[in-house]
Amino acid sequence: MTRVGRVLGSEHTTTAGFRVVVDDDEYLQLDDLVVVATEVPKAGQVNTYGVVTEAEAVFEGATFESDTHRIAELGIMPGAKVRTVRVAVTRVDPEVWVSPDPGEEVERATGEARRKALYADEMARPLPVGLGRDGAPVHIDLDFFDGRKGGHMSISGISGVATKTSFALFFLRMLTAMPAVVGEGAANLRVLVFNVKGEDLLWLDAPNRVFEGDDDAREAWAALGVAPTPFDSVRFWAPPRRSAGDAIVPDTGGRLTGIDVFTWTPREFIDEDLLAYCFTDANDARNQLPFIRERVQLQLKRWAVGVDGMPGAVTLRDPSQSADGRAWRRGESVGAGQVEIVIRDLPSLVDALERHLEPGDGGEPDPAWTGRVMPGTVAAFLRRLHAASARLGHLVRDGESRRIDRTAATVTVVAIQSLHEQAQRFVVGAMLNETFREKEDTGQRLPLSVVVLDELNRYAPREGTGPLKDMLVDIAQRGRSLGVLLVGAQQTASRVAPEVLENAAIRVSGRLDAAEAERAEFGWMLPSTRARARLLKPGTMVVAQPAIPIPLVITFPFPPWATRKEEVAGDAGGDPFDGLT
Amino acid sequence: MARIYVEGWSPDYGAPLAPDETLAPAEGSVDDTVETTTWRPLDGHDDGVDSVVFVDGVRRIDAHLTLDDPQVGPVSGLCGTFAVGAAVWDRTVPRTEVAAERVERWAILSGGRDEIFPPVDLEPGYATMTTTDPDPSAPLRALHSAMRSAEGNLATAMASDTFVIADGPLNELGPRPAVGYIKSHRVRYLSPERNAVVAALARGQRTPLFTIGGYARYSWYVRLAVVAQGHSWSGIVRCEAPNSLPTDQVVTLADRTAAMLPVVASEPHVDPRAPQNLVPIAGLERALRHRMGDPGLVVRRLREAVAERKAS
After folding, report:
1. What ipTM was assigned to the predicted interfaces of this complex?
2. What pLDDT sits at residue B187?
3. Which residue out of A64, A76, A82 would a mutagenesis test of the B interface target, given it has the greatest number of B Cβ atoms within 10 Å?
4. What are the strands, taking DSSP E only, across A149-252?
5. Which of A183, A332, B106, B178 counts the highest number of beta carbons within 10 A?
6. Is the full-model pTM beyond 0.90?
């Protein structure tokens, strides 16, 4: 290790931090790691490790501002340039909490000292999540992500420059590329990613042509110990295109091949209570809407019965005609000829419901379906149902099951960017519900399920309640022990439900809006980090984790997978009409 | 018509112009023809010398002493510290660095006593000297002389290869390129018509050389700055050089000072003795004062040293 300076003696050192006077022929920059050995009476040598949080320089001897000219330009005043840095203590080893002695030699922490400064020696399962300023990997303790000691990750930052999604994917790549670190959870690790903007995530399996010429990135990936390749096990899912009529083609722009179309059958829609996720607006929780919604869900389950020869379709029939007289059992069906309304999609389901809730013949609504709510509430319910039917009706259709198969590949990308916001919430809700219920049923932490969700503020807003928010809060609170791990990203953490944020053990931030950085949600940052968070470049993130008492600034390399169509190397996944004239 | 002016210096430092007629040189002892007989302001000339060394010292009374002698009664003395050093102005960079600092601590007893002050836990420690002069201010004068002599030695040593400007009158008069720099004027050396030339100096100009009988130095006046609201002698300093140097070399030095000193003169808002207190010298003095050590700590160590001796 090289000596870089001495502990400043003209002001107090503390156990939280100290300053270093840098040697003339050395330098220290932000995020550099240093170590100081202090001889403590009766305790022996105590090593204090720290990270540079601010660098300063001054002309010693200058008392007036104008002395600067006298010293630097005319050179007529004696004055020495003194460079100092502020160091935040990360660790004291052994744990004797004394401040470092003034005047002690400060060394750059490399090798084992660096590992100690970053607690890498104490991490049972260190997973690299980026590179420090020195080009060496910085780790997180995976125990704090995968649920053993903590779970979830929260990523904040301004849209565009904060590279939230890029970091989330980089993290996933590390997670999927290092089975040795992930351990037993690696075998059936399942990752669910929602593509909410553009089509950035639809090329995860394609090599990036820009990366090929980027030696720095190549070097960085080598330092991380991961081969720079695209994700090897990815499946892409997209909703069907509306205008395509009976033909089922994915509703994507750039990529048309290698994408599966997902829909739910009416049978699945009813069995899995997906109706709940048609009512995810925060306002929907007011009044008596949830009451009638739950009532209808219950009734649908009892009344729905299959139709012969029409897989996935159902019809509503009084369960008093069923075998036990209470509810139709799954698998039971009735002949198509004796059915008035076949529910083949969402509009037909709404039609069928309307007969019970608002009979067109002027009759009274069926109290078994309405739950005796006020007629206005029934009307409001139907109004919302009609709206949902228009916005996400194309996601429900009969026929063979086209539901998203999360077991088909390690990473499942669901493209919902083309959907209306309500439909996006529906898909997210349905998928999270499926994932979470599945784990709840087994009660096992393994296999791990990771969910990446951007714009978390839209799904778990701070204000209001709703089934989607409830579930995200539930996942945040209980998901850790069930192996459902949320990687949530948001532009403004202050607009996300605090329960969701607070339960994230790993906190990451890219560039922040100045006002946002001052909010309590970023209390985990040091004041110096907070000031810097306004200036972070794309690719630079602040990472806080329980294993290290202070947040670290890291960079992560350019991805070897394409992030838009133009970056795709060769013609993998490219436009099939390329080259045709 | 005479006018009244307020002096620019802070009153704590006295006045730059404090004529004392008792110090006037003997009639006819000043020779103002050594350089030229036609007195007029002369322009300075910077010959581009690479480095200039400013030498100065500071002193401080650390404590007053009393030697309680049952036979002869109490004898007074003092403990004092002085520091001398040089501000080396490297004009090629340009940069000024403090160098050759030397700190001495002295316990000085009056009455020619032979007691030795006990060892003090300081670096450097105290040496003891005595003065036979019964005057109560004699110990302080002895400290001052010791400092002046250390300054002189340093100036001489530095002047062997560089151009030296020493604060105050020259002590050592060997043939070396050293210039004494006198900030305040207590003696009128020149006749009224020659003084008119001093009054007429512009910034960066000097008077011709003159010598004073019985005082082996060349002298000349330089105007450092045209002081706003100042009188005709504001911003004037006197320089001197050993007369063991040939006159033409002294002319070179004088031209050099006239051109160079205005550059290092201080600004009124920065220094209470502006413009006469030069910037490198003010910086040097600050560094030297710092090097003398914390006065409170020094007194504590002195008390400890005396108490220990009593205990043993």
Report:
1. 0.79
2. 87
3. A76
4. 151-156, 190-195, 234-238
5. B178
6. no
